[in-house]
From TrEMBL:
PANTHER family: HYDROLASE OF PHP SUPERFAMILY-RELATED PROTEIN, HYDROLASE, TATD FAMILY. Keywords: Hydrolase, Metal-binding. The lineage of its organism: Bacteria, Bacillati, Bacillota, Bacilli, Bacillales. InterPro entries: Metal_Hydrolase, TatD-like. This is Uncharacterized protein. Belongs to the metallo-dependent hydrolases superfamily. TatD-type hydrolase family. It comes from Marinithermofilum abyssi. GO terms for molecular function: hydrolase activity, acting on ester bonds; metal ion binding. Pfam families: TatD_DNase (PF01026).
């Protein structure tokens, strides 16, 4: 746990920073060394990166093995992106296979931004729940926390499903 120990001027340069949400897989490989160098220069000691789908999981696994002291990864299926039932099964298999390399299941949740505005406040559909619940169950079974995509009025339904599945959710305030 990081404690805010800024001095009276607000300087935190002596204290490690954790970047808690970056989709590192979206950075071109040829730019990774420079991006990580800049992050470290800025004081970032560890970056947490959430996958968005099967290809994203594989790319993050490659990066995590390349930068094991810097990058921590989670495997998931982002709810705002189109996916198939095969994608769900593929990511679940990747979670099982690479449990030793991941520290969370995510990014997972319910769609919000891809919905029409009038649909955003409706309860989750059966298919949305059916897509999310296997990831929550896998996280609970493997004793992994979940990194959630929980937006506005769709946050409470996501948290209710998390509670039902018995998962842990890290909380970042700020």
């Amino acid at each position: 746990m990081l404690v805010d120990k800024a001095d009276s001027t607000g300087d935190r340069s002596e204290y490690p920073l954790v970047d808690s949400h970056v989709h590192w897989d979206q950075i071109p490989e040829e730019q990774m060394d420079e991006v990580i160098r800049r992050a470290k220069t800025a004081g970032v000691h560890i970056a947490l990166s959430a996958a968005t789908g099967p290809d994203s999981c594989r790319r993050l696994l490659h990066y995590q093995q390349r930068y094991p002291d810097f990058l921590r990864i989670g495997f998931g299926l982002h709810p705002e992106y189109e996916s198939t039932s095969d994608d769900v099964l593929d990511v679940l298999r990747l979670i099982e296979k690479h449990r030793g390399y991941i520290c969370a299941v995510g990014e997972i949740g319910l769609p919000y931004y891809c919905l029409a505005e009038e649909e955003r406040s409706r309860p989750p559909s059966g298919s949305e729940k059916d897509r999310l619940m296997p990831f929550l169950q896998m996280a609970a079974m493997m004793d992994l926390p979940v990194w959630l995509h929980a937006v506005h009025e769709r946050t409470l339904p996501v948290l209710e499903m998390v509670l039902q599945a018995g998962c842990a959710v890290p909380c970042f305030i700020g």
